[in-house]
Amino acid sequence: MAGVTLKGKENLTPIPSLYLPNRVTSAVLKELELALGGQRAVVYMVEEVLTPEPDVARMLKRRQTLTFNFRKANVKTLREQLLDALRAGQHVVFVPGKPNRTMGCISDVPMPFMMQLAALHISPVPVFVGMYRESLWRTFCTDKTADAIVISVLPKLSPGPLTGERVLEAWLSASADEFADRPLMQASVARLLVEGLRKNAKTELIDGMDGSRLPFYKVLGVAMALAKELKKMNTGRRLGILLPPGKGGVIANYACILAGIVPVNINYTSSESAFESIVRQSGITRFISARTFMSKLPQFPWPKGDAIIHLDKTLKGIGMAKIAAWVAFARMAPMPLVNSRFKLDAYSGDDEAALLFTSGSSGEPKGVALTHRMIVANVTQLLSKVYLEPGHKFLCSLPIFHSFGLTISTMLPALYGFGMVTYPSPLEAKKLNELIEEHEIALVVSTPTFARSMLRRASAGTYKTVKYFVVGAEKLQKAVADEFAEKCNLTVLEGYGLTETAPVCSVNLDDAVSTPEQPYFVPGRRFGSVGPVLPGLAVRLTDPDDDSVRLPLNEQGMIWFKGANVFKGYIGREDLNAEIFRDGWFKTGDLGKLDLNGFLTLGGRRSRFSKVAGEMVPHEVVEDAIESFVEKPEGFTGRAVAVMGVPDAQKGEALVLLSCLHTAHLPQALDEIRAHMVEQGLPRLWCPREIIPVETIPVLPTGKMDLRGCQMLANEALGLQ
Fold first, then answer.
1. Interior/surface letters 591-610, b for 16+ CB within 10 angstroms, e for the rest
2. Fewer CB under 10 Å: which end of the chain, C or N?
3. How confident is the model over 280-290, as a mean pLDDT?
């Protein structure tokens, strides 16, 4: 039986109050009841159709209850009944039933209930109930597998409107605090990596380039051999890695972590100035790469002399016999011996585990240190919601210098025992589809741009084994999602993440629906949103123009996050850090809002707005309207248009449209676009001033639009500096 801990006793009010928990068990109710003064001091408020768990129902039969039917309830009558109980000196505890829901959801209270509870206009005391397993596997849980249950009684809300939104915000904040306090958040990625690879020794890493297969115990053995060699080379605390997704890139990263070295995965498509900036900021002096890979990128500013450790040459120098010995050690040595050889717990918790640099799509790259805590937190947050089992395979084709490519494609499979099918480029759609079919891959992560290209080359059965096809980095257009569903019977799921959050913040996954037996449900996905916020991540919104003005969750504003997966600041950039952190909260630069089920809907980046005649115009909304209208040639798979803001003498700023589809008759094409936008209900003020023909819309290797490159194209075409 899970142990139950009650926190926040100081928030238990002496005056009878309405208590709103996000979920309950009989043990939770008994603990709360005892703290409130016993059975006689409490009345339980129960929805008669949304029945609770059987053990809770049995307990309530012996307690005083107030039942109501949501579909027939009269809010005024219910309010009077509650007030009568409160005036009689009894606390009222709302008992969430058991709706249809997905794993890892933050609450068992469906949105209609939240709305009705808010309409009572009785200021409640929010209560957050967190259920946890002391394991990497579904750490945040919603069932009886919990090892620990924490009840957090939160401060009573002040009277006023939007009670539901304020309760949700309080629950999310408590969820973040409690998740960050789990003992697992102090773990070492090195130790977890060894344990995961040994536990799932026969699971394979399959290199999609040459078809080679390495069981995890061999991956670990080779990584151990390389780790010892790196230690001899005395490379310093950080080591640059210039390798694509593949067995080499994976082993190099694992070896660094085992050696106590921080891997710095570098964007090998960077400009010379960006590369020099990364080297300067990180202080790295040596790099690991492979000669065959280097030969494919002759234009890259490769470091000279012995600054590069050649992976292929180094492994050959170690020798097959020594590597074989390490493979045997990896498989059979007792953990205490492994620990003594590699000091697995030397770095953990808030120590730096990896260093990444933002893409530099709108400026100089910024260094983001991913700590052990951040990586452990994010993989457990995601796996608390994903229904996969060990042995399911991941497609690992996103660059390792991308946060998703590092945390989710490189680290997570090893920690949990998921098979890895690597490929060095997310651009080769035909090959990726072949790998998905051949190896029966279960999880694919991409961007809408890359996914569109894959769809064009897919057959009806290409994705028959795919349980989750998740896209992010840019907005998923409905036309793309509909085509996937029609052609391949596949639901494409949109998510959202940031390098600074290690990276996943929210994602649409499995769904729950109503049934005749159970009409109430908490959904798991909603198109147009980027999914519900992951457990353990708190959200607040502020006025985009004034950080000090808080906004309710249902009103679009600047998004701030707090949680164990959130970074502590850019390395060496105290000037930026002072702007983006307030009392432990991180300012993302993105705009969005939440509904009462915790679904996050993005409104775009603050930097992707233009102020035209005093009105804020979102570039992405304009792009979506135009993308859905312009005719694309057969086989076209890339981005068609991009909207940029440029100075305008009369209006302050104006929008211009970069287009790789328009080469002639531009005034006529612009008139047609304007007419379409007006038909769609968009203001005339939002229409582009002119079209700028371009060969292609610049895109980063991660699939995101290259904002810097697009702005340069616009400026050059218009003669701007």
1. bbbbbbbbbbbbbbbbebbb
2. C
3. 95
How much is the pLDDT for 610?
A: 83
The residue type of 463 is Y
Does the N-terminal peptide bond of residue 365 adopt cis geometry, omega within 30 degrees of 0?
no
Cα 693 from chain centre = 35
Domain 188-347 has CATH 3.40.50.300: no
Q: What is the 3-state secondary structure (H, E, C) of 501-535?
A: HCCEEEECCCCCCCCCCCCCECCCCCECECCEECC
DSSP state, 39?
G
C-beta of residue 375 within 8 angstroms of C-beta of residue 351: no
The architecture (CATH level 2) of 388-508 comes to 3-Layer(aba) Sandwich (3.40)
44 pLDDT tier (thresholds 50, 70, 90): very high
pLDDT tens column, 506-564: 999 999 888 887 888 999 999 999 999 999 999 999 998 899 999 999 999 999 999 99
Would you tell me the crossing angle of helices 247-258 and 216-233 to the nearest 10 degrees? 60
3-state secondary structure of 230: helix
CA-to-CA distance for 129 and 143, rounded, in angstroms? Answer: 12
3.40.50.300, 1.20.1070.10, 3.30.420.40, 3.30.300.30: CATH of 613-718: 3.30.300.30
Count Cβ atoms below 10 Å from residue 554 Cβ, excluding itself.
Answer: 16
**Residue 449, Ramachandran bin (φ over 0: left; ψ between -120 and 50: alpha; else beta):** alpha
Asked if CATH classification 2.30.38.10 holds for the domain at 537-602, the reply, yes or no, is yes
Given 3-state DSSP classes, what are the helix, strand and coil percentages for the chain, each rounded to the nearest 5? 35, 25, 40
pTM: 0.88
Radius of gyration of the chain, Cα coordinates, nearest whole angstrom? 27
**What's the CA gap between 493 and 444, in Å, rounded?**
10
Average pLDDT of 455-481?
Answer: 92
Nearest to 227 by CA among 257, 199, 200: 257
Q: How confident is the model at residue 1 (pLDDT cuts 50, 70, 90)?
A: low
Q: Do 43 and 64 touch, CB atoms closer than 8 A?
A: yes
